[in-house]
């Protein structure tokens, strides 16, 4: 069925707009993207950034401690999967790339007493910040170090034991060649029928358009001043990535929102991509994996 643009648009209670359409660029924005190509990061430097990815994130947390990211209080609104079950049902939750816990701690604060939380990150400092949070409770949480581009997650959790996993602004920090490994790790961690909740940067988000020449590593992949990296996704890229890993797509869409701070006179449009990907419970996905 053909849909007009308006029909594909959905506005939620918070004013976030869900739309299946790539942002149209103005001439000035096209020029800015073009200018980024005038000075691409040399291959040797790009290789060094990849080798030192963990160190750059660990230094990021040394510098910013727990002050950089805001608590993600929107997750229960956007991801009904977090609240749609019986109160006494035991739920195993895994945050992949947890940083200092800005997603898990708001859930802990709201109750979620039937949840057991696993939280992992490859930055030892980030994991230490999670463990030293006053809400950290060893009887219902376990934070540990794991690099999602390897198998070492499974030194701490059993394969197939997770009901809900999340990947929130993490995949964009990882080299595109390693994304399929990360998707595979998430798939293996989930039980059949388990769901992966996803949010990350969308193509032509203002943060992408703002990069000056000298920051571009590859198409849509950039280095920030502090050596951390970020990619800006289209819906199609994520759909292909997670479908190829064996997931069923429940949701996969751009989210347009505005970041407003009246005091500082800030009002900027943002573009994210949001997804919900389910590991099938009918064995079909296992077949896909065998053939990969
Ligand atoms: C932008 S932060 C997001 C943190 C958290 N998910 C949140 O929403 O606040 C990205 C996180 O991904 C982590 N990360 C990047 N690459 C990783 C990898 N290969 N394995 C595990 N964690 C990784 C970084 O250390 C950082 O904590």
UniProtKB/TrEMBL annotation:
Keyword tRNA processing: yes
EC number of this enzyme: 2.1.1.-
UniProt keywords, alphabetically: Cytoplasm, Methyltransferase, Nucleus, Transferase, tRNA processing
Compartment(s) where it occurs, according to its Swiss-Prot or TrEMBL record: Cytoplasm; Nucleus
InterPro entries (alphabetical): METTL2/6/8-like, SAM-dependent_MTases_sf
GO biological processes: tRNA methylation
GO MF term set: tRNA (cytidine-3-)-methyltransferase activity
CDD domains xref list: AdoMet_MTases (cd02440)
Reaction catalysed by this enzyme: cytidine(32) in tRNA(Ser) + S-adenosyl-L-methionine = N(3)-methylcytidine(32) in tRNA(Ser) + S-adenosyl-L-homocysteine + H(+)
Gene3D superfamilies named among the record's database cross-references: Vaccinia Virus protein VP39
Pfam families: Methyltransf_23
Broad class of enzyme this protein falls into: transferase
GO annotations of cellular component type: cytoplasm; nucleus
Record's subunit section: Monomer. Interacts with SARS1/SerRS; interaction is mediated via tRNA(Ser) and is required for N(3)-methylcytidine methylation.
Family: Belongs to the methyltransferase superfamily. METL family.
Protein role: S-adenosyl-L-methionine-dependent methyltransferase that mediates N(3)-methylcytidine modification of residue 32 of the tRNA anticodon loop of tRNA(Ser), including tRNA(Ser)(UGA) and tRNA(Ser)(GCU). Interaction with SARS1/SerRS is required for N(3)-methylcytidine methylation.
UniProt xrefs under PANTHER family: METHYLTRANSFERASE-RELATED, TRNA N(3)-METHYLCYTIDINE METHYLTRANSFERASE METTL6
Protein name: tRNA N(3)-methylcytidine methyltransferase
Organism: Chrysodeixis includens
Higher taxonomy: Eukaryota, Metazoa, Ecdysozoa, Arthropoda, Hexapoda
